[in-house]
Amino acid sequence: MAQGSGRIGQAAAAFAANARNPALRRAQLSFLGAWTAEWAFTVGLGIVAYRDGGATAVGLVGLLRMVPSAVLTPLLAPVADRGRRERVLVLVSAVRGAATAGAAVVVGTAGPSAVVYALAVVSTVAATLYRPAHSALLPSLCRTGRELAGANVVRGLLDSLATLLGPLLAAVLLGWAGVTVVFAVSAAASGWAALLLVRLRYEAPPRPPAPAGVHLVGEALAGIRAVAGNGDLALVVGLAAAQTLTRGALTVLTVVVAIDLLGTGEPGAGALTAAIGAGAVLGSLAASLLVGTRALGAWFALGVTLWGLPVTLIGLVPTETTALLLLACVGVGNALIDVGGFTLLGRTAPDDVLARVFGVLESLVALAMGTGAIVAALVADRAGVRTALVTIGLVCPLAAAAAWRRLRRLDRSIGVRDRDIGLLRSVDVLGVLPLPAVEQLARHLEPVAVPAGEVVVAEGDVGDRYYVIESGTAAVTGDGRALATLGPGQGFGEIALLRSTRRTATVRALSDLRLQTLRPERFVAAVLGYPPSARQAGTAVDSMLHRYAPSDTTGRGPVPGRARPGADPSGPPAGR
């Protein structure tokens, strides 16, 4: 009972944190507008294609609108790694709104369908760029892995609401006014998504400067190399692609099942898609209980399974009630994928290529959606709708089963890193860093053990590390005076690294010490590259210099007479 109450409390805290954080709130509401527009537009476009040529036309349009996205998204995603990510989101939302509004005009004036499909390609390219930029933005708005998981839970709920509201809105508008109004409402939602982000304010984490010139292919290849060179990233991306293959198939199968198999007509296609959204809403509320879990990989595997198994069962039991209930189970799987998959990617990929990694994902997603759509159409035409449902539905469960052991290992490694992040967060100069920066530091911690009585650093030494105490206690002395006693969660060594001076005090182990250390180039780049931590560090260093070396508060060099006997005062400056 107590554990259940704790889970509910963590879920409530996740929603409260998003509501209190103005930047997160704007980013999340923008996502809701963007994805409501995408789902409504997808239903409307499916109806236009079905009127033109049946199931095969729906599949071909689905493939043709996704292929350009698969090619262009990795090339455009580096823009979000080099600049302000929210500006990219504003731009792509505006482009989507304009393209969708143009499609409304064409349909409303009985213009050629080819123009509608061309505008759909433009809208889809922008849509596939939106998610990687948004996914890369979220970690910069969070401070801990748990907060990021909470943000992904909230975004998953909003994604689920969009999956429900978009098709439901389309179904209502199709029965009342037609495709033109569906497209017009989608355009308005995209415009709202852009306006929300115009005034987004946050401190971006430190990133390397943009290279001179534009090298789109080389920048895109950096994201591909990041995924290909990391087995965990490749696994999560691959499973997401398998899930999206089924999702693409469902863009065709929901229309064909509604019209040909169940006989519920065009509004029935919207109702079936809305059932996925309804299940996703319920699943997102349940997934909010997973904010504090260390088994995100396991839940991600379950989510992938639920994207396929219910589809197979619809082929075996094709009734309207069964289809609605089973597609709701697909929605639950979608919620689990959102909280598990996106959090795992955000925690595993380096921030400086994060948008490009999500760009690779979106490229594969776009390709898989198009492939799934055309495969579903061909199988349905040649072997029947029920055969298509059964065979395509088996892809995800089989892929999840094959990946189970690797995902559980990934869960264990994330748990260890969370412990290290918690240790770094307890240090004042590191506690204000955004999650991507402190996570990057946690990946490069090097453990050091020091027996009781041994000197860790000596006054006058060249500074070559920053230290954080994981366990044990240490005494700080200077000029023979006792200055402080340090314990777990406290750090030392920043003065020499940040002020390019020698060690201003001696630190000796009072008990056996277990330390985590950072090399100077990583520590200095993280602390000085982020304005809040730079200010915090400057204040802390000035205070300690006054305390440890009152005769030299400038930090320009060692205090005369304070170097260790035998130390070479002409040695290289510390921290360089």
UniProtKB/TrEMBL annotation:
InterPro entries: cNMP-bd_CS, cNMP-bd_dom, cNMP-bd_dom_sf, MFS, MFS_trans_sf, RmlC-like_jellyroll. GO terms for cellular component: plasma membrane. Residues 555-569 have a biased composition (Low complexity). Residues 429-523 form the Cyclic nucleotide-binding domain. Its main location: membrane. Keywords: Cell membrane, Membrane, Transmembrane, Transmembrane helix. Residues 548-576 are annotated as: Disordered. It is a multi-pass membrane protein. CDD domains: CAP_ED, MFS_MefA_like. It comes from the Bacteria. One of its GO terms (molecular function) is transmembrane transporter activity. It is found in: Cell membrane. It holds the Pfam family cNMP_binding. The chain crosses the membrane at residues 29-50, 56-76, 179-198, 233-259, 271-291, 298-317, 323-345, 357-379, 385-404. SMART domains: cNMP (SM00100). Coiled coil: none annotated. This is Major Facilitator Superfamily protein. The lineage of its organism: Bacteria, Bacillati, Actinomycetota, Actinomycetes, Geodermatophilales.
